[in-house]
Design brief:
Elements (H helix, E strand, L loop, with lengths): L1 H31 L1 E7 L8 E10 L2 E5 L4 E5 L7 E2 L4 E5 L2 H29 L5 H26 L2 E3 L4 E6 L6 E2 L4 E7 L2 E9 H4 L11 E6 L2 E13 L9 E9 L11 E7 L11 E4 L3 E4 L2 E7 L5 E12 L2 E6 L6 E3 L12 E7 L3
Parallel strand pairs: 1-22
Antiparallel strand pairs: 1-21, 2-11, 2-15, 3-10, 4-6, 4-9, 5-8, 6-7, 8-10, 11-14, 12-13, 12-15, 13-14, 16-20, 17-18, 18-19, 19-20
Helix pairs in contact: 2-3
Length: about 350
């Protein structure tokens, strides 16, 4: 009999422990809260950040060429090499031009001496004024001819017009080149342009008075972890005939720690929020978030402690999988998006997914 009592008391103790363990589990579940999908009320389904593909282009570029013909005897230009303004890019054999200068200088000196003699004779009234005019005309012609020869001699040196980089060398050393024949392609080293297209539907919404203050961000495909700032430079006023898009150019300073060259692909992010107004009133929430009770329309929102709060709202229309709420909610308010029939006032809610509308 005594052993039977001990067995019964043991069974009771096990039952009590099991009940207490279940209560602890229920309390833990309550503390964690009911899992629920959360959506944020939003004014529009469309993001104000638009991303456009673009390509880099030289902000300042020039095709450098000699003004005179001749044989190249010195070609320091190398593709990718930096040159300061005034540095030598290429040089022609200047011996023929030196000879022309020497010849022109001799004839100039002769004309100057003759003018001096004629002036002295005219002062003593030994010659007519027409003889003096003829000598003066010859002198001016010889002077201009000498100046042209000196200019041609200076044109045998091709120098950098500004600080920049040689992108392409079009000729080889010791080549014979003609005047105005391309020698190198040269572009600036202080800034780089980015060219991209904006669709006509968006372009017409951008006010022209804000163009000079336009700011975009750039992410290069080859440097995805870096974001660069760029600013509006110019745009075309006629759209592309095929795409009906307008070409826009922005410019950015060249960074010193990475090499960014013309022809690189880049993603251009443009914030259109200040330009594209949302005429629709209210906010959008998923259809499943709205329910009817007591002849009124409600949604479940969350308080600061993530507890469910029933809130009365007014709706206007359905837009696809969303309903527009015109009263009772503000942009960014969290709402329970799924399973609203199983939620109770004050119930602890554990968000499963916090997302922007979807």
């Amino acid at each position: 009999m005594h052993k039977l009592k001990l067995v019964l008391w043991g069974m009771v103790a096990l039952l009590v422990a099991a009940c207490q363990e279940e209560e602890v589990k229920d309390t833990q579940v309550e503390d964690l809260g009911r899992p629920a999908k959360i959506a944020l009320a939003q004014q529009s389904l469309h993001s104000s950040i638009q991303v456009f593909p673009g390509v880099t282009a030289a902000a300042r570029s020039s095709t450098l060429a000699f003004r005179v013909e001749g044989q190249i005897t010195d070609l320091p230009a190398i593709a990718g090499k930096f040159f300061n303004k005034g540095d030598l890019i290429a040089r022609l054999d200047d011996a023929p031009y030196q000879n022309v200068v020497a010849d022109r200088k001799a004839t100039y000196e002769l004309a100057r001496l003759d003018l001096d003699r004629q002036q002295a004779l005219f002062d003593r009234k030994h010659i007519a004024e027409s003889r003096l005019d003829e000598a003066r005309s010859t002198y001016e012609a010889r002077k201009a001819s000498l100046k042209a020869a000196q200019d041609d001699l200076s044109y045998t040196r091709l120098v950098a017009p500004f600080d920049g980089i040689v992108s392409v060398v079009e000729v080889d050393n010791f080549n014979n080149v003609q005047a105005k024949e391309a020698i190198v392609q040269f572009h600036g080293a202080k800034a780089i342009d980015v060219v991209f297209d904006i669709p006509e539907s968006l372009f017409v919404k951008l006010p022209s008075e804000d163009a000079e203050n336009g700011h975009v961000t750039l992410v290069f495909d080859s440097i995805p972890d870096r974001v660069f700032d760029a600013y509006y430079k110019e745009h075309e006023t006629s759209p592309d005939a095929a795409t009906r898009a307008f070409e826009v150019t922005v410019s950015m300073p060249l960074p010193e720690d990475v090499s960014i060259l013309p022809g690189m692909t880049v993603s251009v992010s443009l914030d259109l929020s200040k330009y594209i107004a949302n005429d629709a009133e209210g906010v959008l929430v998923p259809l499943e978030a709205v329910f009817e009770q007591e002849g009124q329309t409600w949604v479940w929102t969350l308080d600061s402690e993530s507890r469910a709060v029933r809130r009365m709202v007014s709706s206007s229309k359905i837009e696809g999988e969303y309903v527009r709420i015109v009263d009772g909610l503000q942009d960014g308010d969290p709402v329970i998006a799924v399973g609203v029939d199983h939620v109770a006032e004050g119930q602890k809610i554990r968000p499963m997914t916090k997302e922007r509308g979807i």
